[in-house]
Design a protein that fits this description.
Elements: H1 4-10, H2 25-36, E1 47-51, H3 55-64, H4 70-73, E2 76-83, H5 85-90, H6 99-122, E3 126-130, H7 137-143, E4 150-159, H8 187-203, H9 217-223, H10 229-235
Antiparallel strand pairs: 1-2, 2-4, 3-4
Helix pairs in contact: 2-6
Length: 241
């Protein structure tokens, strides 16, 4: 049975234009508490949020992310980081170089961020994730003075929406939800979804496209390779063993 929470999740959209209205301190506190209420693997709590209030730093982060103007426009911009430096400060002898720590840190941080998004939208706010921070991840690391074992995963714009975009159609359930074992792709369903996406892209008011979903997969993945990431991770102390 659908309820208000599920309805809120179903209608989530990425917001890239914001009103100038600032969030209240109470709203910010509610969002932080919601973020901290997310699950945490073994209760390690290995995620950190950095709120960017300095306008010069905000502009630099917008530039580093590909000149995404809404980073400057949004009343709030938060950077979500996987963070094992806190644990390193408590006990420098802990081995933190394994791939598992990277996975745990990324998962914990994603849980925290999505809790923030749901809480924000319940307050009438809009959000958009900024993965483009990783385009210039070393510059972001320097700007935010991030020490070893801290990884800036993405940013999050938060504010009152100044646009009302359509909901982007998702893949059919049958392509993402299996029972008991993995299943090969159903190409008929995929073709139907591509048609749906072409219609969506053709009718939306901005950034119209003529392609579907599957015919842009290779281009999107290749564009987002960021071949420098592995070396960066090693420099920050991640997955060196």
């Amino acid at each position: 049975m659908q309820n208000k929470t599920i309805d809120l999740i179903y209608h989530r959209r990425s917001i890239r234009s914001y009103q100038s209205t600032a969030l209240t301190n109470e709203q910010i506190e509610l969002l932080v508490q919601a973020a901290q209420s997310a699950p945490s693997s073994n209760f390690l709590q290995c995620a950190t949020i950095i709120r960017i209030t300095d306008s010069e730093n905000r502009s630099k982060l917008a530039h580093y992310s590909g000149d995404q103007s809404y980073i400057n426009q949004a009343p709030e911009f938060w950077v979500f980081c996987a963070d094992f430096n806190r644990h390193f400060q408590i006990d420098p002898t802990i081995p933190l170089e394994k791939a598992e720590q990277l996975l745990v840190g990324c998962i914990d941080t994603a849980f925290m961020a999505q809790n923030t998004v749901i809480a924000a939208e319940s307050l009438g706010l809009g959000t958009v994730y900024i993965g483009g921070l990783r385009n210039n991840i070393e510059k972001v690391t320097q700007l935010l003075a991030l020490p070893k074992y801290v990884l800036p995963l993405f940013g999050l714009c938060i504010g009152y929406p100044d646009q009302n975009p359509d909901i982007k159609p998702r893949l059919p359930k049958e392509l993402v939800f299996f029972e008991n074992h993995y299943q090969p792709i159903n190409h008929q369903l995929l073709a139907q979804y591509d048609t749906q996406m072409r219609q969506y892209y053709g009718h939306r008011l901005t950034n119209q496209k003529t392609n579907g979903w599957s015919d842009k997969i290779a281009e999107t993945i290749i564009k987002g390779q960021r071949d420098f990431i592995l070396n960066y991770l090693h420099k920050q102390g991640w997955i060196t063993k």
